[in-house]
Structure formats: structure tokens, C-alpha cells
Amino acid sequence: MALTQTGTPSRADRLLAKATQYNKSHSIAGYTTQTLANMARQVDFEDARVLEFGGWNIPTDITLGDLGARSWLSVDMIGSLSGTYQQKRFSHLKDIEIFDYVQGADRIERDGFTVVDGDATMLPEPYFGKFDIVVTIATIEHVLDMVTFLEKAWRALKPGGTLVTRFGPVWASHIGHHAFVSPEINFQKPEGPIGPWGHLLHRPGDMQDILSKAGEPGNVIARTIHQLYTSPRINRLFNEDYHALFANSRFDETTWTPCWGKKPDQDMFDRLRLAHPHAHDFSTGAWETVSRKG
Where would I find the Methyltransferase type domain in this sequence (predicted)? Predict the structure, then answer.
């Protein structure tokens, strides 16, 4: 399905009008409904076969209802801790049947909602060329092998299909460490002891000293150092890395829209450039992209 000029704004507007309702009934974050509405203005979900990488928490009231998709097949690593967390958090997932890649292949041509437990970078051949749209929200920043990820997305699409994404926080941003260790050490609280861009300015030993002086206990410090510098849960790619990866993929074109960010002052920018001379964009925290397969 090719990109449309206007998408389906009526569906987007209807979805946004229900954002508060979905937050209460399904614990769906506001940015998720906003992102899906933005996507609906870029591509036409009507009667589309959609493959989602990551997530799987979006209720069918949205995917098959508001967006009007014919089918929505979500691939996520359900067996991981995050998968268990999602089933506990989202009540509408408790009774969902989960398939492996082999079982899920029999459901590709079926209408409705399907969840497959699998790694997107291991997407097998039966899924290639079967989908009009590939969607991924708040997932790419966690992908370690982006070359394979983009290749699998490209292969999954039919000719003329579209990959639409929303990802962040990007590593280069002021909260790009994405850490969530305690109420104080939390990427959603940038004024905490890590500090804006602290993960980019300080080495592990220096950060350990900073956290110790802030009075953080040893176990919290150890977990923080791990999440910031060694945990495989984020890929630590800079904005320039993402642009290069998409440009070098097999997608014909990609449009980029920044979602949010924070611009460093000149002194901070100079310090960041000194520490990371290959990077220039330390402001953009998240992106929405649209990529077309010819």
C-alpha cells in the first residue's frame, strides 16, 4: 500500500478523541494514541494487513476498530520480562492466545488480531511480502541489530508497503540513557543525580562517584551503572547513526519528524561535541519516520 497524501484524518481525529478513554480503560499512554493518529495521517490503515514489531499492548478497539485494519499481527518477545510485565499491566491481554513463529505463519492471511512471541530480527521467510504496513512504537531504541531489523521490515512488506515508526528516547538526548532504577534515578526525572546528558559526559567510574556523593546506596549505584553503560536493553545509537542506518537500508525514502527534545546551551553543546566529535544532534529525543518500499 503506497503512501497517501492525506491518510485517514477522520480516523485519526476519532482516535485522538478517545485518548483519555483508552488511557483509563486500557492503560494506553497518551503518546501511543497520538502516534497512531499521526501514522493514520501518513498511511491508510483501512483494510490493511499490518505487522507490528514490539508493543502488542494496543487493543483491537484501536487497531481493527478506529484504524480499520483488516488484520494486525504483533511480533514481540513475550517470553521476556517485559512481556510478562505487559500481560500483568494490560488487562485486555490476559486472555490473548500467543503463538510462536511456526503457528503464527498459519494466521498471516487471517483477519483479526494475532500475537507472536518472537524476535523481529529472526522473522522467518513465510512472513515476507505479506504486509501492507509495518508499525513499530517505542521499540527501535531497544534494537541492537538495526541493520537486520530494517531488512526484516523491508522483506515483510509488499511492494509499495510502508514502515512507520516512533522511537525514543534517543541515546544522544538529555534523557537518552532510558534508565529506570528508582524514583530519583529515572529518565522521566532529568533533574535527578544523573543530570541532563550526564550519561554522555561521564565515564562509569565518574558516574559512580557522582551517585555516591548524592547518597545513593550501593545496590542502586550498581544497577544504574549497568543500565547506563552495559545493559543490552538499549542500543546507544546517536541520531546520526539512525539516519545512516535508514539511508543505507533498502527502503526507497524516509521522512523524519522530530517529536520532542531539549536543546543544550552552548557550553553543554561544546562539552558534548568534545566527548562525541562524530555527533552533532544532541537535541532531538524522539522521531517519527515513514519509509517506503518501492
Answer: 106-164
